[in-house]
Amino acid sequence: MNKKNTPLLDEHLESLKGMQAAEAGDFFYTRLRQRMVADMQRNAIDKLWRFPLKPVWTVSLLVILLGVNGFMLTQQFRNKHISSNSNNSAIKNFAESYDQTVTTTY
Amino acid sequence: MNERELIEGLRQGEEPAFRCLVEEYRNRIFHTVLNILQDRDEAEDAAQETFIQVFESIKNFKEESSLSTWIYRIATRKALDKLRRRKTRGRLHQLLPWWMPQEKKGDEQGFQHPGIQAENKEKAAVLFKAISNLPEKQRVAFTLIKVQGMNYEEACKILEQNIKAVESLITRARINLQKSLENYYNRSK
Fold it and tell me: Which member of A5, A13, A29 has the closest CB to residue B146?
């Protein structure tokens, strides 16, 4: 691109002439080593958690829990259904044994 | 210690080699990431992460480029990661201000580079502010070549782009910066 098209930019770029390189803070190496040691310690602790927290394990556990949940719900529903059926038949038996189904006109 | 010995020492995990590497490159790497990130704390962090990555990945270094190019490549990637994280944090803060802490606000006058001469500081700050609004690839290419004065050949190796792609990035960056500076001064009037 022709430099004549960007006079304002070129004027500003002039301000960078003679720029000194910025220097990292004091004790950079010491701080870096400290960070590396801290990272190593953290990684050692993380390793203990990393295995059970792997997505494959967490997803499998979730699927198992959902399966157990579904199974329990269907069992509960089935039991309710059976008990309501048995309640109905008990009422019927009671009605029949006392002959409550017969309509009598007085 | 020459480059070969340095690489071998690093591969063996020798502390003196690592110290030598850090002493040799720390200011250069810090200067580069500071120019890209325009934040001293983040630049220090990115420089540290660069050396940690070098130490951990030296066994994978295939010597297809020079050690210095490889280190600069890692440094620019770390700086870009930080820029992306900064953007994500900013977006999250806009969406969920109560959950995401406020980003530290930059100086209203822009980034004050410590190596700029006093009489040029104001203009340089305006320029750095305009650079910070460039798309990330243009920002990195422009910073390496125009701010830091790196040659195109080395910048191409660091950015892993061919010369035409880098020239195109610089051209687009120049146009965008010119517009951005014009807007800045029109608003100030």
Answer: A13
